[in-house]
């Protein structure tokens, strides 16, 4: 019997999600899948966000599948001169909460429970304005460990109040969910006192294993792959994703053996984000330094795809739509997933579901999803030669062996990482916190919020002074 068949009629009230920016990425995919999964199990779901660009979001956010409501997009910007990003994110989130509370929009939804991810700073305020609805906070990874460039004393001083706010505010959730056993261990080591306040649960992200109408076209596949064997990378254009590892490993294969092979580097790219723009430029320079001819595609109409040079051995595809991703996974012989210590990694699941073997770093979430030598390979991200060797072996491997690994990968994803599995785990977690008694917040909550804002102001002063 399917999980969907076991779903019971949902009680009155809404499960309300909060996510800062519904763009295209692993965190956004998780939120969308979680919301759709709960909706399919009979729950009324609404997602509040500060930003959702219809041209840069998942299909479910624009085709009416999900009720997505955008508030607090202005006047506070995403950043100030590419700085103070965390300050702006927190202020935008607080503005959203205050706006929907004062307007009565939140109360009208009769929230039954909240699912919040990425930003915990608003949890104290959320508890104060809706004390009867428990909160499940989804921690993708501790933000204090994600912050870049903390070598300088000034940067460490700037981050100090936000690190404190992150740990303090998470204590206002009734439970914390994490995306892997790896992340659960990191959370326990980072905040050893947190487990005394809230329960930590592992809720794996998922992929949609249901059969969908194929919107890709044969012409897309021909143009993207040509007559080449395709080694594929799908990741946001961020330095921490270490996409350069794929370029270096590919370049380490001799030119003769690379003939007829194309490395396709595709993924999320937002021109508003300086790092996306800078890293793409750096990767182009890296390809050129290894004498690899490359080409970048930013539009995916027939004209743009037909202009791809046949001799381009490295292809950059910026902000790909789902139809193009489907085409890429259909023609790919191998997916390379380069991030080290990735919290979970949804792309390897998408590849395995499409029967594509995966080469990934032997750290973080992929260790829990990929079976080494059965559905793919796990290799040291510091060992470029090992990655190059796997690439070459896959290019030489008989087609039936590649297909066998692909079949094993698909079976693993369907049995462990489907949307129904995730929705059931999430629903169980929500029901558990609903069954618990939780005290109403005291006046210390608004006092704490004021202190947090003062610390944020101090951090702004330190950053700009």
Automatic annotation (TrEMBL):
Catalysis performed (reactions): a beta-D-Man-(1->4)-beta-D-GlcNAc-(1->4)-alpha-D-GlcNAc-diphospho-di-trans,poly-cis-dolichol + GDP-alpha-D-mannose = an alpha-D-Man-(1->3)-beta-D-Man-(1->4)-beta-D-GlcNAc-(1->4)-alpha-D-GlcNAc-diphospho-di-trans,poly-cis-dolichol + GDP + H(+); an alpha-D-Man-(1->3)-beta-D-Man-(1->4)-beta-D-GlcNAc-(1->4)-alpha-D-GlcNAc-diphospho-di-trans,poly-cis-dolichol + GDP-alpha-D-mannose = an alpha-D-Man-(1->3)-[alpha-D-Man-(1->6)]-beta-D-Man-(1->4)-beta-D-GlcNAc-(1->4)-alpha-D-GlcNAc-diphospho-di-trans,poly-cis-dolichol + GDP + H(+)
Keyword set, alphabetical order: Endoplasmic reticulum, Glycosyltransferase, Membrane, Transferase, Transmembrane, Transmembrane helix
Recorded metabolic or biological pathway in which this protein acts: Protein modification; protein glycosylation
Domain of life: Eukaryota
Span of domain Glycosyltransferase subfamily 4-like N-terminal: 24-210
Transmembrane segments: 443-462
Signal peptide start-end: none
Gene Ontology cellular component list: endoplasmic reticulum membrane
Any Pfam family hit: Glycos_transf_1
Enzyme Commission (EC) number: 2.4.1.132, 2.4.1.257
Enzyme class at the top of the EC tree: transferase
Entry function: Mannosylates Man(2)GlcNAc(2)-dolichol diphosphate and Man(1)GlcNAc(2)-dolichol diphosphate to form Man(3)GlcNAc(2)-dolichol diphosphate.
Protein name as catalogued: Alpha-1,3/1,6-mannosyltransferase ALG2
The species this protein was found in: Trichoderma gamsii
């Amino acid at each position: 019997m399917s999980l969907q068949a076991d779903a019971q009629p949902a009680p009155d009230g809404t499960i309300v999600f909060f996510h800062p920016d519904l763009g295209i990425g692993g965190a956004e995919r998780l939120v969308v899948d979680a919301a759709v999964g709960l909706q399919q199990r009979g729950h009324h779901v609404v997602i509040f966000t500060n930003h959702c660009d219809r041209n840069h979001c998942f299909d479910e956010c624009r085709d009416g599948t999900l009720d997505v409501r955008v508030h607090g997009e202005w006047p506070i910007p995403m950043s100030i001169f590419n700085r103070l990003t965390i300050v702006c994110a927190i202020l935008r989130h607080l503005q959203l909460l205050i706006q929907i509370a004062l307007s009565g929009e939140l109360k009208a939804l009769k929230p039954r429970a909240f699912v919040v991810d990425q930003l915990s700073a608003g949890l104290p305020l959320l508890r104060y304005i809706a004390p009867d609805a428990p909160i499940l906070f989804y921690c993708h990874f501790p933000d204090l460990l994600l912050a870049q460039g903390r070598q300088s004393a000034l940067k460490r001083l700037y981050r100090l109040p936000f690190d404190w706010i992150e740990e303090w505010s998470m204590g206002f959730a009734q439970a914390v969910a994490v995306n892997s056993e790896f992340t659960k261990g990191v959370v326990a080591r980072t905040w050893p006192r947190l487990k005394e306040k809230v329960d930590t649960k592992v809720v794996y992200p998922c992929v949609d294993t249901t059969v969908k109408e194929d919107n890709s076209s044969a012409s897309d596949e021909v143009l993207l792959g040509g007559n080449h064997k395709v080694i594929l990378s799908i990741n946001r254009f961020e330095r921490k994703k270490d996409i350069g590892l794929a370029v270096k490993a590919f370049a380490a294969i001799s030119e003769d053996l690379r003939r007829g092979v194309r490395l396709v580097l595709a993924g999320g790219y937002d021109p508003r984000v300086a790092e996306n723009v800078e890293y793409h430029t750096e990767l182009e320079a890296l390809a050129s330094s290894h004498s690899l001819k490359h080409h970048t595609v930013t539009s995916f109409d027939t004209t743009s795809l037909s202009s791809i040079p046949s001799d381009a051995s490295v292809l950059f595809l910026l902000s790909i739509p789902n139809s193009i991703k489907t085409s890429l996974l259909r023609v790919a012989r191998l997916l390379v997933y380069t991030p080290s210590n990735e919290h979970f990694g949804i792309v390897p699941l998408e590849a395995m579901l499409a029967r594509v073997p995966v080469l990934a770093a032997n750290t973080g979430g992929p260790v829990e999803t990929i079976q080494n030598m059965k559905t793919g390979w796990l290799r040291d991200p510091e060992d470029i030669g090992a990655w190059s060797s796997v690439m070459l072996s896959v290019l030489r491997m008989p087609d039936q062996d590649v297909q066998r690994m692909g079949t094993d990968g698909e079976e693993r994803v369907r049995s462990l990482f489907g949307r129904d599995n995730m929705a059931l785990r999430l629903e169980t977690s929500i029901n558990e916190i609903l069954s618990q008694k939780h005290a109403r917040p005291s006046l210390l909550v608004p006092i704490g919020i004021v202190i947090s804002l003062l610390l944020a102001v101090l951090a702004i002063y330190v950053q700009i002074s």
